[in-house]
From TrEMBL:
Coiled-coil spans in chain: none
Signal peptide (residue range): none
One Pfam family hit: Sulfotransfer_4
InterPro entries hit by this protein: P-loop_NTPase (IPR027417), Sulfotransfer_4 (IPR040632)
Gene3D superfamilies: P-loop containing nucleotide triphosphate hydrolases
Annotated protein name in UniProt: Sulfotransferase family protein
Length: 205
């Protein structure tokens, strides 16, 4: 059962937050890589984008938390389905966020997003569903990002919402979740440099 519903866009520090959540006992945490490691799971997500297939509660049944896309696209539905779960909104400076998105996720977007199931899911939920096929229009994408932050803040009651900047370290997250601060550094993962290095190694760039 979900205890934390992620409502954050990618490239806001979600990989670091995922590792933090799992360290704090809120794992396993669902994130985009699940689409790359489990073909049947990716096919189920594709059915969800088509309005059929398993319900979100069943699809995410073995997870304790979610972070970023694809689940973040359905943050409203998940927050309603799991009324006792906290809703996690990770924030980042909008301009910095857009630069990171453009350098990484958008730059490695496949030329043919229909070639496999996982890319179809990402295309439908992120590039079309979230940005309407217009991510390259910087001002529009920034407006979408800012509107998303405002909507989550306006929709989720204050006692359920965890607003986090990963640069703040453990204390804000641990306080919101009611757990002790671990005796280890807050994770730093999937930086733009790391992302691009993996992409080069995989022959994507």
């Amino acid at each position: 059962m979900l205890k934390v519903v992620g409502a954050s866009f990618g490239r806001t520090g979600t990989s670091s937050a995922r590792m933090a959540l799992e360290t704090l006992g809120f794992g396993p945490c669902h994130y985009m890589r699940e689409l790359f490691t489990d073909d049947s799971h990716a096919r189920d997500w594709l059915r969800v984008t088509e309005g059929r297939g398993p319900g979100l509660d069943r699809l995410l049944g073995r997870f304790t938390s979610t972070i970023a896309w694809p689940a973040a696209f359905y943050w409203r539905e998940l927050a309603e389905a799991f009324p006792n779960a906290k809703v996690l909104l990770i924030v980042r400076d909008p301009e910095s966020w857009y630069t990171s998105m453009a350098r990484t996720l958008y730059r490695t977007r496949p030329a043919d997003p229909g070639a496999n199931v996982r890319d179809q899911v990402i295309e439908r939920l992120v590039w079309q569903g979230t940005f309407g096929g217009r991510f390259e229009e910087r001002d529009l994408a920034l407006a979408v990002y800012r509107a998303h932050l405002a909507e989550v803040r306006d929709t989720v009651p204050a006692d359920r919402l965890i607003e986090l900047d990963v640069a703040g370290g453990w204390a804000p997250l641990c306080e919101a979740l009611g757990v002790n601060v671990p005796d280890e550094p807050f994770p730093v993962a999937n930086t733009s440099t790391e992302y691009l290095h993996r992409a080069e190694q995989a022959g994507v760039l």
